Here is the input.
Amino acid sequence: MPEPLHDVLNIGNAVVDILAHAEDDLLVGQGLTKGSMRLIDADEAERLYDLMGPAIETSGGCAGNTAAGVASFGGKAAFIGKVAEDQFGKLYKHDMQSIGVHFDTSALKGGAPTARSMILVTPDGERTMNTYLGACQELTVDDIDADTVAASAITYLEGYLWDPPQAKDAFRLAAKIAHEAGRQVSLTLSDSFCVDRFREEFLTLIRDGTIDILLANESEVHALYQTADFDTGIRALQNDCRIAAVTMGEKGAMVVSRNGMEKVSATPVDTVVDTTGAGDLFASGFLFGQARGMPLADSARLGTIAAAEAIGHLGPRPATSLSDLARQSGFDI
Amino acid sequence: MPEPLHDVLNIGNAVVDILAHAEDDLLVGQGLTKGSMRLIDADEAERLYDLMGPAIETSGGCAGNTAAGVASFGGKAAFIGKVAEDQFGKLYKHDMQSIGVHFDTSALKGGAPTARSMILVTPDGERTMNTYLGACQELTVDDIDADTVAASAITYLEGYLWDPPQAKDAFRLAAKIAHEAGRQVSLTLSDSFCVDRFREEFLTLIRDGTIDILLANESEVHALYQTADFDTGIRALQNDCRIAAVTMGEKGAMVVSRNGMEKVSATPVDTVVDTTGAGDLFASGFLFGQARGMPLADSARLGTIAAAEAIGHLGPRPATSLSDLARQSGFDI
Here is the structure.
């Protein structure tokens, strides 16, 4: 098996984040569930945008954020996702390529615009996402570059890919190519509502060996196994997955494998400014560590370092070099 | 004279800022003058963008930032500027209207895209701007809404309006309408290179009474009067202008009128993150104070409060309520 060209290939929805501060009253008034992601159509996107305050725009999307994190750790990252040929698509591509992420998925011409997520950040730092998928609806198997998949130590897929109609076929094709090349496949469950939409399919992917490494947070574990008891969920994960890493907010993270489980503390954060991207950046550290053959707990520690960085500022991608932060914490990377 | 509907009408280039951190080496390698603004064409915009790191996008532009500052002080602000009918134009309009700024200039159809400024923020917090004017080139006298001008206590114009071919006619028309309605007209010199381009015209505007209130920084005063001696420049200003407010970075600001001059200290800043918008927000505080009939020194103090806020975070517009900050400093607004 040749040395991988990329540590992590990230496949997901290419989304521009539109981030604005909002009071809790707005969420309540609009019936929005704090901390969740909901899908909206173009009309609802217009309506909600009119209610939002002044915003900043920045590249986002689960897998895209994870790619940015891997690059910031000094890893080699690739990305597959669908933007449109418009200003948002251009800035998305720029932000990827300018940090050295390999990204050459063809842009959609003459169809829907680049996806955008209107993210309301409440005073507690929690983010509530409202995503119009736009061009992401058009990701297909044709966008899966087999050479890139085969050349990546880990192919990482976001659960949100189950929403666009043809993306799950792209997902399955990528997983097949990866395994045929002797590589690993990872999935993030993305969001508890996403798990509610696709529970059986996700469980099948996990149990039939399509997924080698599962990323999830507490509420997604609860949703996946429909249990209020976290320990029950974790034991079920241990039975179903080869490797799972579960984030638990300020309580840190739990890594689970057939050999056992281990808890890793959260990296302290002075002020929670904006949790957007925290889970995605945890994934970047964990997967970078796994791609480089680190122990599970060390990989999770890299994840908590990256998550803490994301929480300390507005926006989902690293504002500081993650490799510098890792070295300050004693990692030799 | 009827009560003004708006405290400040801001007329300027409607520009989306593309902000990225950059090392000094990039500026040196590209021959860029730190702290300045240069105009670039579409090709140079592409070339430079390829060299820039990942960015955040946010509404900017001198006069637009000042409008946002006035609104944040609780003032009534209006804006006239030209965007295109594209994604950047839409976000620009959203950001204005969502903070209550009156903005209904028609968007340009089928021409150049919305203006963008690629802003390189070096580790010292200094910003270096590279602006592609795009749709701003098409601002004309037809965009000056006479009712809005006549209903604004102060009409504020940016010196950068001398760059687009027809905007100076729009500027002159607005000034004429304002004075006929018994209102005041203010100008910012914008940038020392802008002063170098249009020195004689700016001096004429100041000396013939078109301008009632001049905003400038130290280097613009040096450029305007072609003197290395600041006191010489200030005395010349006092002779030429009814009111001038000159910002001096960490040394504060100087207010100058026929009756005398007074120095106001800078508001302390813990860390200089990004100076983008500092001058524009100083103007917002100063002009808000003037529109509300405050003394010159108090108006300048509001300016320093706003400038300090802008310097403490990435991006040119207030991230915190300026009226709250002013009240914390003892202002009853």
Observations:
- Chain B is about 40% helix and 20% strand.
- The interface with chain A takes residues 18, 20, 49-50, 52-59, 68, 86-88, 91, 94-95, 98-99, 113-114, 315, 317 of chain B (CB under 8 Å).
